[in-house]
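REQUEST
  id: r-88c1
  op: predict_structure
  target: Olfactory receptor
  payload:
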Amino acid sequence: MENCNQTSTDFILLGLFPSSRFGLFLFILIVLIFLLALFGSLSMILLIFLNIHLHKPMYFLLSQLSLIDLNYISTIVPKMAYNYLFGNKSISFIGCGVQSFFFLTLAGAEALLLASMAYDRYVAICFPLHYSIKITRRVCVLMIIGSWIMGSINSCAHTTYALHIPYCRSRAINHFFCDVPAMLTLACIDTWVYEYTVFVSTTLFLLCPFIGIVCSYGRVLRVVHHMNSAEGKKKAYSTCSTHLTVVTFYYAPFVYTYLRPRYLRSPTEDKVLAVFYTILTPVLNPVIYSLKNKEVMEALRRAIQRICSVKM
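RESPONSE
  id: r-88c1
  status: 200
  body:
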């Protein structure tokens, strides 16, 4: 333990972009995706807030998802872009802890909120007569608050552990953000106990909600299968399959990354998989949940017409 570094020294984020033309192309692509995600999430939040026809439980949950996505991608990409542009890959010990805390809080909150949204759709389609009783504004608020609180508690536990262990190897984190499992490869001590808590957290916050979402959509598709309208069936199948694809993009790489033992993990593979749940999902969510929703598209059309009439 004599060669352990002081915890006040900076970490080095090795990043995602290689020093080549391909790295520059990847950087430009991710910045464009980031800007698109910001625009999409902000537009969704404002549209739901300003349009009285969207003041319903489902859209209340959707606005919260957009808020989480907005903060989620902003926790990762700006620092990554700054490091690439200025060639400064360092991040302070405290800064690393703050980034890790917000990443884990938002990731956990989104995982639980997506499960809440799937439950909302399950009740709406399978028990339409009971929807107004089971899914009230109070229930939505409780689901949202619960998602944030549970995500914060889980994040606080993991971040606190990461900030209190001694680091004695290279300070270079082979990732593009302060991912706690990537940080632990630099630890002086055996972290098998912590790796077990990661397994438990991943199961509770990712695997269980994902299984619940798949089961709920399975029940929804079963109900849809017995519908008389062929057009209604086609629309429902299309919507469900799209939602499941986006949800899988978020949960599957996350679960695969965090449930694997350390000796089976590859830094390069972890970074590629992390792109799915840190960058691609936040940009896909507003697109999928708006384009596949007639009420949102109608509200967007009215908003655009209003803006155009004001300009004229």
